[in-house]
Amino acid sequence: MSELPTELDPARYVVGRRAVAEALAARTPLEKIFLSYGGEDGPMAELRIAAKRAGITCSVMDRRKFGALEAALGLGRNDAQGVIALRPLRTALTLERLVEDALASNPAPLLVALDGITDPHNLGAIARSAECVGAAGLILPVKFTAPITPAAVKASAGALELLPVARVQRMSETLAQLRASGWRIIGTAIPADASYDAAHTYDGPVIIVIGSEGEGLHPRVQAECDVVVTIPMLGRVASLNASVAAGVVLFEAQRQRRSTTH
Q1: Which class for 74: exposed (0-12), middle (13-18), buried (19 or more C-beta within 10 A)?
Q2: At 141, which helix (H) or strand (E)?
Q3: Are 241 and 122 contacting, i.e. CB atoms less than 8 angstroms apart?
Q4: Which of 59, 97, 138, 180 has the fewest CB atoms inside 10 Å of its own CB, making it the most exposed?
Q5: Cβ contacts of residue 117 below 8 Å, gap of 6+?
Q6: Would you tell me how many other CB atoms lie within 10 Å of the CB of residue 10?
Q7: Going residue by residue through the chain (262 aa), what tens digit of pLDDT does each one get?
């Protein structure tokens, strides 16, 4: 079940089965489609098939939460016919454009890729750290990731309005492609190959891949990493929150890269 988005901007929502179906047919960029639990009739099933073809995630909400979403948008009960779609804050770049722009601005840029980060607050916090260390952009999977909601933007302190974002269908294939073209892929997971502060870890064009704190990196994603790093834990808690861990690794990357440059 999906949680109710917060700080809603009605202009970012497409409401109703017909409106959402027309948006899909017109290839209108959509971040996510929220469905009321229990709607399994013909039109709803067709809509879900169309969304799958377009690579757009459908998230099922229980009826109480879906009704709360309708109310937050100023809609009457059942006005949405069980379907509400969220538009992106802005159109994502293609991966090719993101990489081209990154290399044009810096011969050894830093990109951040997310794998399995489904909490909008974690997404926002990671984006904030990425922007603060001068990352050239974010790479997000189309599926199994948090949508860029107003809550995510707030958690990012506006960084998501500044950082270029590219969405990709398959993260493992994307990383394999980038690795073959000369990018160094650094994963964050347990178990790991090295400590996050090992010397020369972040040299050259580098992509730091942040996995979820529960599942870590997907095995196929981890297989594409040149090295997997971890942050040593001295206490009795086994791991850090994903966004906190991302911040620690990103600022160590910044420290090493600045030392190399200077």
Answers
A1: exposed
A2: strand 137-141
A3: yes
A4: 180
A5: 123, 126, 145, 146, 210, 211, 212, 242
A6: 10
A7: 445 554 567 768 888 898 899 889 888 889 899 999 876 667 888 999 999 999 999 999 999 999 998 888 888 877 889 999 998 876 678 999 999 999 999 999 999 999 999 998 899 999 999 999 999 999 999 888 888 776 787 788 878 878 999 999 999 999 999 999 999 999 998 888 899 999 999 999 999 999 987 788 999 999 999 999 999 988 888 778 899 999 999 999 999 998 766 5
Which residues in 202-225 are b (16+ Cβ under 10 Å) and which e? beebbbbbbbbbeebbbeebbebb
If we measure between CA atoms, which residue out of 39, 45, 123, 132 comes closest to residue 88?
123
Q: Are 203 and 108 in contact (CB under 8 A)?
A: yes
Nearest CA to 240 out of 125, 102, 86 is that of 125
SS3 content of the chain, % helix, strand, coil (to 5): 40, 20, 40
> Which positions ≥6 away from 7 have C-beta within 8 Å?
149, 150, 151, 154
Question: Which residues are CB-contacts of 204 (< 8 A; sequence separation ≥ 6)?
Answer: 108, 182, 183, 184
CA torsion angle 170 175 178 182 (round to 10): -170
